[in-house]
């Protein structure tokens, strides 16, 4: 089966999609969504888009983006989502790697002209640049179209760039359905779910949690064009959202805005978060201020949600663990602490970079994630850092993520990244880059870590206070940018 099979099995009169965009809201039932998908698919066919070709989609959250993704699936093309913040250098790289014949964007969004940008991009295979502002959809005409099969490519999703080296991750219809079925099963989500999130749908988190998963289940997906915590809370109340997914930064924003002006969030039950350690106070504040249960997860563009804490776990487990493996996936930790995974939602490879993907596979078929982890003591995992993010202080390997998690337990710390900076004698030392209350000192942090019983050699030896940390659209901290600032 594919997502198109799922869509046709839901009641046509049920609300499928709500898109808050262009100053208003567009509501589409499953029947209306399928109609627009067919008309978008007809438009792509008339442009000469064929089976297996990548259609590059650089759009904010909108009904047009959702319909275009599904329209690609309808005719066997492959959607290539690109987050709106990407600019000419990155877009040129992605267009040329995929040899995409069609690029679709808004003419202008948030003061930036995509029309001007794409006109200056050198991409020899690009035949059409479309702007949804100008689109007129033709009547559906899909006679003779053969839809793709479960094993055919269904997405080329570029990694979000925490290392500055994006790769085009290829998922099939099978792997996408597996990851979304699994994450829904563990959290007991059903066709009654109403989802929302802060990330763009062109990022893998938004693509899966807030488009693919609710539509697969027969639920309702609420999409919001751009992030604003106050506006989002109003929408959560108005639409009766039951499930939200987002990085801890989105969670903190919502908590602060809700505390300032409370809304009726009685239907919001579940908040899933990942990409960074969760402070214990966030678990409590999510419960007390938002009225929902917080779950911690770990995953990658390459395999979606692989581990997650469970409803059956104590609530505070979200601040202590990254969860246990979802159905269909397996995890193992090597003697060196490297986290490796395999299973039903593992991607098919990297687009036209087969050698890069093969280098990530072990001889016995496990995918080496590049993350470091340990057993959480409850049958799950706790991420301790990135293999390429290791700080080697002399002969000592500093467990970066554990230090970050410990610092987040300080009452004045709101966001943190621990990164290495060069040292002539030791090679590297650790710097804590914090978003924190004014007046926090390095001595304060040392007293705090000593009180937690953390080994002194793990303590940061430098402190930088910043108003915010650089992040990818999904909320992951771009540590390479921080390291460059510390040289």
From TrEMBL:
Source organism, top-level taxon: Bacteria
GO biological process: fatty acid metabolic process
Keywords: Ligase
Sequence ranges assigned to domain AMP-dependent synthetase/ligase in this UniProt record: 10-343
GO MF entry, a single one: medium-chain fatty acid-CoA ligase activity
AMP-binding enzyme C-terminal domain ranges (all copies): 402-476
Pfam families, sorted: AMP-binding (PF00501), AMP-binding_C (PF13193)
Family: Belongs to the ATP-dependent AMP-binding enzyme family.
Protein name: Cyclohexanecarboxylate-CoA ligase
Originating organism: Herbidospora galbida
């Amino acid at each position: 089966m594919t997502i198109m099979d799922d869509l046709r099995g839901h009641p046509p009169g049920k609300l499928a999609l709500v898109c808050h965009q262009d100053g208003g809201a567009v509501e589409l039932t499953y029947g209306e969504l399928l109609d627009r998908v067919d008309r978008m698919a007809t438009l792509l066919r008339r442009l000469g888009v064929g089976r297996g070709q990548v259609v590059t989609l650089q759009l904010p959250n909108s009904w047009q983006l959702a319909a275009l993704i599904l329209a690609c699936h309808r005719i066997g093309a492959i959607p290539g989502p690109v987050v709106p913040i990407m600019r000419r250098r990155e877009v040129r790289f992605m267009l040329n790697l995929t040899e995409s014949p069609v690029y679709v964007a808004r003419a202008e969004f948030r003061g930036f002209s995509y029309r001007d940008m794409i006109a200056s991009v050198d991409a020899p295979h690009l035949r059409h640049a479309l702007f949804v502002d100008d689109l007129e959809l033709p009547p559906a005409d899909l006679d003779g179209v053969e839809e793709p099969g479960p094993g055919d490519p269904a997405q080329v999703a570029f990694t979000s760039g925490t290392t500055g080296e994006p790769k085009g991750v290829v998922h099939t219809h099978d792997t996408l359905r597996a990851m979304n079925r699994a994450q829904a099963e563990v959290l007991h989500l059903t066709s009654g779910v109403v989802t929302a999130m802060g990330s763009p749908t062109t990022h893998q988190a938004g693509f899966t949690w807030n488009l693919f998963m609710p539509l697969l289940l027969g639920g309702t997906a609420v999409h919001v064009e751009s992030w604003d915590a106050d506006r989002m809370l109003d929408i959560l109340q108005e639409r009766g959202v039951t499930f939200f997914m987002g990085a801890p930064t989105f969670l903190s924003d919502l908590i602060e805005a809700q505390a300032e002006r409370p809304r009726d969030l009685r239907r919001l039950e579940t908040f899933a978060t990942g990409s960074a350690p969760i402070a214990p106070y966030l678990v409590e504040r999510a419960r007390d201020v938002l009225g929902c249960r917080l779950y911690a997860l770990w995953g990658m563009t390459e395999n979606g949600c692989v581990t997650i804490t469970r409803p059956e776990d104590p609530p505070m487990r979200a601040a202590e663990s990254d969860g246990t493996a979802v159905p269909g996936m397996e995890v193992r930790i090597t003697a060196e602490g490297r986290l490796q995974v395999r299973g039903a939602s593992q991607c098919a490879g990297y687009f036209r970079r087969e050698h890069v993907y093969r280098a990530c596979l072990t001889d016995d078929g496990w995918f080496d994630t590049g993350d470091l982890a340990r057993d959480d003591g409850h049958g799950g995992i706790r991420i301790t850092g990135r293999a390429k993010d290791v700080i080697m202080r002399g002969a000592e390997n500093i467990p970066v993520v554990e230090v970050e998690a410990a610092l987040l337990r300080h009452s004045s710390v709101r966001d943190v990244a621990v990164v290495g900076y060069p040292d002539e004698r030791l090679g590297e030392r650790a710097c804590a880059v914090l978003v924190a209350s004014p007046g926090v000192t390095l001595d304060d942090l040392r007293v705090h870590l000593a009180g937690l019983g953390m080994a002194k050699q793990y303590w940061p030896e430098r402190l930088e206070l910043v108003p915010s940390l650089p992040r990818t659209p999904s909320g992951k901290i771009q540590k390479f940018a921080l390291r460059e600032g510390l040289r």
